Each structure stands twice: as structure tokens, then as C-alpha cells.
Amino acid sequence: MxxxxxxVGEIALRGGVxxxxxxxxxYNSLGKEEQVAVQAVMESGVLSQFLGCWHExxxxxxxVREFEADCARxxxxxxxxxxxxxxxxxxxxxxALDIEPGDEIIVTPWTMCASATAILHWNAIPVFADIDPxxxxxxxxxxxxxxxEKTRAIMAVDIFGLSADMQALRALADEFNLKIISDTxxxxxxxxxxxxxxxxxxxxxxxxxxxxxxxTGEGGVLVTNDDQLAERLKLIRNHAEAVIPGMGERxxxxxxxxxxxxxxxxxxxxxxxxxxxxxxxxxxxxxxxxLSAGLRDLTGLTVPFVPDGSTHVYxxxxxxxxxxxxxxxxxxxxxxxxxxxxxxxxRYQNVHLLPMYQKKMAYGSHGFPWSADFARQDxxxxxxxxxxxxxxxxxRYMGFGLCVYDLSEADIDLIITAFRKVWNAxxxxx
Length: 430
Prior knowledge:
7-stranded mixed sheet, 14 helices, Aspartate Aminotransferase, domain 2, single chain, globular, 2 domains, alpha/beta, 430 residues
């Protein structure tokens, strides 16, 4: 691979010719297999078979059950439950636990907003812990510092395609009698030791949204090894309050049901997509490793970290920039990379800084649930409570959406060339 000083030519930001002259092809995991599967469902005339009452069809049609059985086998769990979106899955996961209004669930700020919103949905309170500076996932020590007498659960988000430190989080959960939810939306197929990411929590699960490794358009899959939690997840998915009377005596807490059901067409697609997941993940890993090899020596740039015993599936390819070493802000570097044809993002998310949390206003206009008597009144979301996440978002993080594009090794080499060209022009000690 060329050294940065060997990449010649004026950068496009200053009028030079961009390295990448046409947009990369959009990633598409769908093929003939999915077309055939959808056609078969269409010809059957059964697009959904759910009934919102206690009946054999409470559990859905044949494709729903087949896809759930396939997912349970693939991920090595007792139960897999499909839902119509991963946001729905998170809402069901929080509700399936014995969560009371005012209970607290510790969650990362470095995530899509639905992770925390699912907590608020049940009038519980999100408490934000900081991220680990190497993995972008929850920092177990920050989690410990945020545990109070009202903490009932930890929501670990396996961000960008890498599992959180489940061994450390499980030790905390056992010490304080807490439950764990794994939001593994971005990491299907990632490994943590001998297990798949998402399967070591009390409840975990994956997104099937269109821009993930595999997808059904919209959708999600919950996974658990707990029989009782599995039943509660299925009830919340499908009109729990109307179903329970026919099932015999059941706990009624949080049995507010919804229509979170995934249809037969989506599950038929999911059956075929799941078969492709290992190969798709392996391809993404090979490309990411090639990209890291080409960028690792650039001054002030840190490529993704993968802990021993874990694998990364690279939904996003996260980078860190040290402007003290580069002598150049991440924003200026990103602007130059975009001009070369590399679509780099420079912001992710600090959920605790969204207006809803800053104003503590979710339900109605009087600050509920934070203002309620059942909530701890000294929960705060001021800037400074998550210093690593805040610093990364403001100054250090850059990301490339590996899952957005269908890339070849030649495309990766063009991206490397673009980085090295920009570093040669802008970085003081390149």
C-alpha cells in the first residue's frame, strides 16, 4: 500500500480531480430467492394469519413460525419472536420485564434514539452512561457509577456491529439484581466469544430494517432463553389485554398489547435472507480488514478496535481523529474526503442532548414522567455527564457506512487512495 506522501495530485477540494468519480452502487442483499418466496406467499393468498385473541393463530401464520424457528436455530436460543420493527421490539423488550413507572434503565447516549424512547414508553426513566473510548459501546465502569436504588435494567447497544462487554455487564447485573436488554440492531452475526451478539442478555434482538446486513424492508427479531419472557413478548406484540382472558391466569403488569406483528411476506423474505447472513458478514469483514490495513498508519487516525474474542460486522466503519496530531479538524478532513467521493459522516448521536431530554418533556406539557412523584427528581441530562461520547461527537468521530454500499476490493482501494491523498495534502506530519 502506498505511503501518504506517495499519493500525488491536487485534492478535489482545491480543484483537483476526485479519486472516486461515480457514486458506489447501493448495497442490496435481495435476489431471486426472495422473489420466489414472495411469489409463493402471494399465490397462497395468506399475507397474514395473526388473530388478536387466544387462538392457534395468535402466533401467526406458517412463514412467521418458520422464520422464528430458523432464527432460534441460527442464533442458538430457545425463542425468537418477530416484530414489525426493531423499535417495536425494544418497546416489547422493556415491557416484558417487571418494569414499574419511575424505574430506571441505564442506556448509552451513543445510539439511535429508539433505544431510550422505548424506556420512556413504559414511564421508566433512561439514565445515560458513557461509552468505552475504544469500542463506542457502554463503559461498564460508567454503568456502575450510574446505578441507583431505582435501577432495574441495563440496555446494552451493540453499536456499529460490535458486541458490548457482556461479561462485565453481566457481572454488574448479577451484583445488583438487574436485567439486561441487548439492542443488537446493527450487529447480527457478530460474535462474543462462542456466542452470537445479542444472545447473552435476558432479551436481545436484531433489526431487519432495509439498510442492515439482512432485511425484510422493516422488521425485527427478539431472542431470549427465558420461557416466561418469550410469552410476554408475544403477548405485547399481539393485543395482550385481549388475549390473556383465554389463556388462564397470567401476570397483568405491562400487558398493554399492540399490533407489532410481522407479515407472511416479510417472514418469507427473512427466511431467505438469514441463509445469506454468514457470507454477507464475512464479505463485509474482509473489506473492513482491507480498509484498516490501508489506513492504519495515517497520522492521527484510529481505525476500528476489535477486542480479543469478539468479531465486528461493520454496519458502520468508525474512525477517530486526533486533531492535535493532524493539525486539522475532523470537519475539514471530512469535507475534503467528500470532495474525493467518500461519504464520511462526522456526527452520530448524543441522545441525552436531544430537546426532549434537555426539557424533560415526553408525555403532555408538564414534564411527565420525570415530574411524577414516582420518578427520582435529581436525574439530569446536562452536557458533561457523558464526556467521551460528547467529545467524540463534537471533535473526534468520523464514520463510513460500509453497509450502505455494495463494495469491491477495488472500491476499497479507491477509498484508501482518497484518504491518503487528503492526508498528504492537509495533515501536518503526513
